[in-house]
Amino acid sequence: MDVLIKSFNRPYYLDRCLQSIYANVLDTTISIKVLDDGTPSRYLEKIKLKFPKIEIFKSESYDEKSNSIENNQDLENTKIPIALWLNTAKQATDYFLLLEDDIWFTRKINFEETQKFLIEENVFSLKLFWLNNPKLIHGTTIKNKGSVTIFNPNVFTKNPFLHRLIFGMTRFNIRKTMGFLKLYSKEKALHYYSIYGVAGAIFNKNYFLSLWGTHNNQVDENLQLKNAVKFWYRNPKIQFARTNEEFVATGFLSSATNKNFDAGEFDIFTFNKILNEAWFSNKFDVMDNFPNDINVSKINAILFDENNPKATTEDWEKWVFLFKNQFQNIGCNI
């Protein structure tokens, strides 16, 4: 089974992700493919030296983005590397694991045994985590085997037209009207994530590729959810599953996108550059505090020593609070 890891300018988290894979995946051979969109080459070279068996694939915008990051320039090119993701997925094994660089394993897993079970049971998506939010794995149990639970997602409608009308339309106050009619609610909408995941899941290749149909080079979760419902409607015998416990965790101390959340002068690219350099200089042990998130005290000490007005400890802590808050508001227990 292939492991595909989306990566962008956070080699310190990528290092942690890779270390966790080699420590927890029980298969004798692992095929790991890092899909990078702009991490400066010297960081990737260090990653490659540390993990020589991995493959690194670069996006078409890699050179432009990595040069901007290395030279502390504003990132004008914000194109999402969807082509890289899909082209790699097309060449991947029939079932593959999709991660992001800030996701790491916390439990042991055997891919070969897991894939065999998924094929036997016609499971097209296996969630490895859901941020402790039961709304994202909403359904009734069909079967348990080992560490996996097959479940029947409990959603408001499986009909693609009705789903799009109730949950996918945002123009002309349609969503507000649906809410007034008690057809739409945020909780009902979240239930559809039981059949979809951005990362941290094992996908059947055909199912994953179907999620990105007519993507217009944009990341649109509403579109992907619509495509998921459509695929399920056309293939009613497919199954969905989750692990009994969360097998991976994710970080909430940084981001790959520069969203400020009104946290003073905080700039995520400046923050990541500081941590990247500390990691590159071997002044930053990314496994400290594992399997929990990276040691906050250590990050605070690095920021304090750097004394950069765009990444103060105070602004960073405020940013983290606001970043986490958007997930807690939808029921995630992080």
UniProtKB/TrEMBL annotation:
Organism superkingdom: Bacteria
Concerning InterPro entries, the annotation shows: Nucleotide-diphossugar_trans
Q: What is this protein called?
A: Glycosyl transferase family 2
The organism of origin for this protein: Flavobacterium sinopsychrotolerans
Q: Source taxonomy lineage?
A: Bacteria, Pseudomonadati, Bacteroidota, Flavobacteriia, Flavobacteriales
